[in-house]
TrEMBL record:
Enzyme Commission number(s) of this protein: 6.1.1.19
InterPro entries named among the record's database cross-references: Arg-tRNA-ligase, Arg-tRNA-synth_N, Arg-tRNA-synth_N_sf, ArgRS_core, DALR_anticod-bd, Rossmann-like_a/b/a_fold, tRNAsynth_Ia_anticodon-bd
Subunit structure: Monomer.
Family assignment from sequence similarity: Belongs to the class-I aminoacyl-tRNA synthetase family.
Full protein name: Arginine--tRNA ligase
All residue ranges annotated as the DALR anticodon binding domain in the record: 462-620
């Protein structure tokens, strides 16, 4: 990437590599394309006698202030021939910031790269050769799929796509609770209200939800019911009651069938489904083996992991009734995942309430299997809250994921008179983007009207901008987009568009004409809105990489929103197909250049939306 060239030049001038150099993108474009505070950092090291950073350049060591040091660094940087090919201007600002303005030739070459690489633009190989298991979704059978699950699955899928764009092999897995007390509560509820089969997937799930609420309430309020539910739980673990087992298996399938409809709707396809029922025995065995090795301890008839020895807290892994807990099951799950996929890392996308849980579980795993130390990572995502607080499926006060998707879709049809198939894609975008545009750990109070706005920071706004680029390109018989083929693999749907940049890639002369528009070595020859877009394109690969390193889809959302805003301003202020203010002899090259800008904008937006798990309709 371009910023790497600037960083290497700074390292060369300073003569050190111990000091980490960061380049920021200034919010104000007047300050250039990149900015560094390295002079301020380095000056502090110079004055620190205990600093481990050794500077051999006496001229730099004699600097009187951070600004003076920045000026000296700038003078040396300007002598670097390699840097001068990509940087047009280097200047010192404020107390010692160094600002870099890229050469116009670099910007137009990036424009060409966007068009020529098309769907591949922004991808890298920084994770090539690695394998990462991403475990997400986690809906329990016999319970409703609520909006917390919906945020989880949207988050997990976005992380998967962003990781894959950087070269890693991603394995999508889903770990689901299909045994345990919650199952027993649902089965008890079925026995209480009477078994019935509504026949359809949604009806079956609604019935299970009702049964679960009945069982949960009785468990809390009725000691006799509590004892019966505990007995059901024991029989299910032991598989000792054929009639009970038959009811369990049938209703378990109802849940899984329903979940698949949600996965398909949000373009998610798992490589492996793990269940508590397949890992609890293995997990219990490993805990008992660990007990013999002194990793676990007996306490009041239960088997615990002594977390207090490690600054954590003690947790029960096998109850006094000899039943393995979630913690024990995770021991078995980890063994299966590493045996089946041998990943470099396993990411668990789970809510914040499980933070302390995972600290203990990871420490226990480390003791049992030292070879997987530091390979298990908890990715925290925040709650989706209602006005009255967190969702609670125990009381029935729960907002279903499907309900939210349907409500958003209905609002889109009502507000924009959209066709059903378009409204569905826009609804998915509205919901996903609302979840992803904020930091993963940030809590969300979902606002339907805000989520579908075409004027604010929303998924539909980005889709609308893509549709606008398509509309412009269609007028000159340019087509758009090929990402749909990959999305189709996830959701079995139709292709939405063709290849946006094909006309440019297939016609070098056309691209060259656009690239010859005025003198790109001089920023003053470009309209501010044209320049602003070009400068923004430069940063897309960097944003994708940063989003990868930090598991932060919100960084990508922020960037895409910025691109969309800048394109729409450009669209409003300048004629793309024809501009009467342009001299006749320049109109063709100006038109082709602006078409290239339009094509590149659409390509970047669609590439980014794909990484977020969002489709871009041809038109809206």
């Amino acid at each position: 990437m371009i910023k790497d060239g600037i960083i290497k030049a700074l390292e060369k001038v300073m003569g050190i590599k111990e000091q980490e150099i960061h380049l920021e993108t200034p919010e104000n474009e007047e300050f250039g394309d990149y900015s560094s505070n390295i002079a301020l950092q380095l000056f502090a090291e110079i004055k620190n006698e205990k600093s481990k950073v050794k500077i051999t350049n006496q001229n730099l060591k004699d600097s009187k202030s951070p600004r003076n040091l920045a000026q000296k660094l700038t003078e040396e940087l300007k002598k670097d021939k390699g840097l001068s090919e990509i940087v047009e201007q280097i200047e010192v600002a404020g107390p010692g910031f160094i600002n870099f303005r890229l050469a116009g030739t670099v910007l137009v070459s990036m424009l060409k790269e966007v068009i020529e690489r098309a769907d591949k633009f922004g991808e890298s190989e920084i994770l090539k050769g690695s394998k990462i298991v991403v475990e997400f979704a986690h809906p329990n059978t016999h319970k409703q799929f609520h909006i917390g699950h919906l945020r989880n699955i949207c988050t997990g899928e976005a992380i998967c796509r962003i990781l894959a764009a950087n070269g890693t092999k991603v394995v999508r897995v889903n770990y689901q609770g299909d045994v345990g007390l919650h199952i027993a509560k649902a089965i008890y509820g079925i026995q209480k209200i009477g078994f019935e089969d509504p026949g359809d997937v949604k009806g079956r799930m609604a019935y299970l939800g009702k049964a679960y609420v009945e069982g949960s309430q009785d468990y809390e309020e009725d000691e006799d019911a509590k004892e019966k539910i505990a007995n059901i739980n024991k029989k299910l673990y032991e598989k000792s009651d054929p009639e009970l087992l038959e009811l369990y298996e049938a209703t378990r399938k109802w849940s899984l069938d329903y979940f698949e409809t949600i996965y398909k709707r949000v373009y998610v396809k798992f490589d492996r489904l793990y269940f508590e029922s397949e890992v609890f025995k293995l997990g219990k065995e490993r805990v008992l083996e660990g007990l013999e090795k002194g990793i676990f301890e007996r306490s009041e008839g239960a088997v615990i992991f002594p977390g207090k020895k490690f600054g954590l807290h003690d947790r029960v892994f096998i109850t006094s009734e000899d039943v393995p807990t979630y913690e024990a099951k995770d021991m078995g799950l980890a063994e299966l995942q590493f045996a089946e996929y041998n990943p470099d890392f396993v990411l668990h996308v789970v809510g914040p309430e499980q933070t302390e849980y995972f600290r203990v579980v990871f420490k226990a795993l480390e003791a049992l299997k030292p070879e997987i130390k530091n390979k298990e990572i908890h990715i925290v995502y925040g709650w989706v809250r209602l006005k009255e607080g967190k969702m609670a499926s125990r009381t029935g006060n729960v907002v279903l994921g499907e309900w939210l998707l349907d409500e958003v879709k209905e609002e889109i049809i009502k507000t924009y008179k959209s066709e059903e198939n378009v409204a569905e894609k826009v609804a998915i975008a509205a919901v996903k983007y609302s979840f992803l545009k904020v930091g993963l750990s940030q809590e969300i109070a979902f606002d339907i009207k805000e989520s579908i706005s075409l004027e604010g920071n929303s998924g539909p706004y980005l889709q609308y901008t893509v549709a606008r680029t398509n509309s412009v390109l269609r007028k000159v018989k340019y087509n758009s987009y090929s990402r749909s083929q990959e999305n189709a693999a996830f959701q079995g749907g139709d292709e939405l568009s063709s290849d946006m940049s094909s006309s440019f890639r297939g016609n070098p002369a056309l691209l060259a004409r656009g690239g010859r528009h005025k003198n790109y070595n001089n920023y003053k020859d470009l309209k501010p809105e044209e320049l602003s877009l070009l400068r923004t394109f430069i940063h897309y690969p960097e944003v994708v990489e940063e989003a990868t390193k930090n598991y932060a889809p919100n960084l990508l959302c922020n960037y895409l929103y910025d691109v969309a805003q800048k394109f729409n301003l450009f669209y409003q202020k300048h004629g793309i197909l024809k501009d009467e203010s342009v001299r006749v002899e320049e109109q063709e090259s100006v038109r082709d250049f602006r078409l290239a800008l339009t094509a590149a904008t659409g390509q970047i937006l669609k590439n980014g939306l794909y990484l977020l798990g969002i489709q871009a309709p041809k038109s809206m």
